[in-house]
Amino acid sequence: NAGVMQNPRHLVRRRGQEARLRCSPMKGHSHVYWYRQLPEEGLKFMVYLQKENIIDESGMPKERFSAEFPKEGPSILRIQQVVRGDSAAYFCASSKEFNQPQHFGDGTRLSIL
Amino acid sequence: AQKITQTQPGMFVQEKEAVTLDCTYDTSDPSYGLFWYKQPSSGEMIFLIYQGSYDQQNATEGRYSLNFQKARKSANLVISASQLGDSAMYFCAMRGYNTGTASKLTFGTGTRLQVTL
User: Fold this and answer.
1) Contact A29, A96 (CB under 8 A)
2) Which residues have C-beta within 8 Å of that of residue B94, sequence separation ≥ 6?
3) Which residue in A21, A28, A96, B8 is deepest, having the highest Cβ count within 10 Å?
């Protein structure tokens, strides 16, 4: 009974490159959420998606960041032209319904050189 | 807007003792949920316990209990019989159940708990 799966666990990119973070929700969950955790801080909401739809992207930076959750396959958080400030842990969570507890993956640690 | 405040950046507790981690919150939503998560040094986020704002009783899960005082807007986590494996960062979080706030969890800044021998 797999939980939320995120990959890669660690990702290193040089400034200006693209980063793609993947998240497969728990079986039976169709609601996906992305959060960002800067060092020594709590998690900050970025975006909420339901299959093929972005429901709430109020926490997403206006530029360079995008997210999708296609009909088939994992949810993808994409960061274009990464900068040093993008270094953080990115967590994905999923829930069965929007008002049920969110279960988190192990996160992707993104480091920008 | 929702806000979670955790005023204890770090706490120490001796093994087998109980410890209380403080959490206060602020929200305008009449209905909301409160959560505690544990983040060990390995980095994953582990769900511990949930309290709904209209639940009559305080939530308990094994050694974890949530001391919910609605009038004071506090949702403290109590860990009984601390174990060395409880050493971790602990985050309090909340979610309102209005349409505009139901999707996101708002987190506090966390409390780092160290269990000593």
Assistant:
1) yes
2) B2, B4, B25, B27, B32, B33, B34, B35, B75, B105, B106
3) A21
- CA neighbours closer than 13 Å in the CB half-sphere of residue B54: 6
Residue B96 confidence class, pLDDT cut points 50, 70, 90: confident
Q: How much is the pLDDT for A101?
A: 83
CA angle B99, B103, B105 (to 5 degrees): 125
Q: How far apart are CA B103 and CA B88, in angstroms?
A: 26
Of A45, A48, A89, the CB nearest to B43: A89
Q: Judging by beta carbons within 10 Å of its beta carbon (0-12, 13-18, 19+), is residue B31 exposed, middle or buried?
A: middle
- Contacts with B25 from chain A: Cβ below 8 Å: none
- Check CB contact under 8 Å for A104 and B97: no
Contact by Cβ (8 Å): A50, A69: yes
Cβ pairs bridging A and B (under 8 Å): 60
Whether A53 has its CB under 8 Å from any CB of chain B: the answer is no
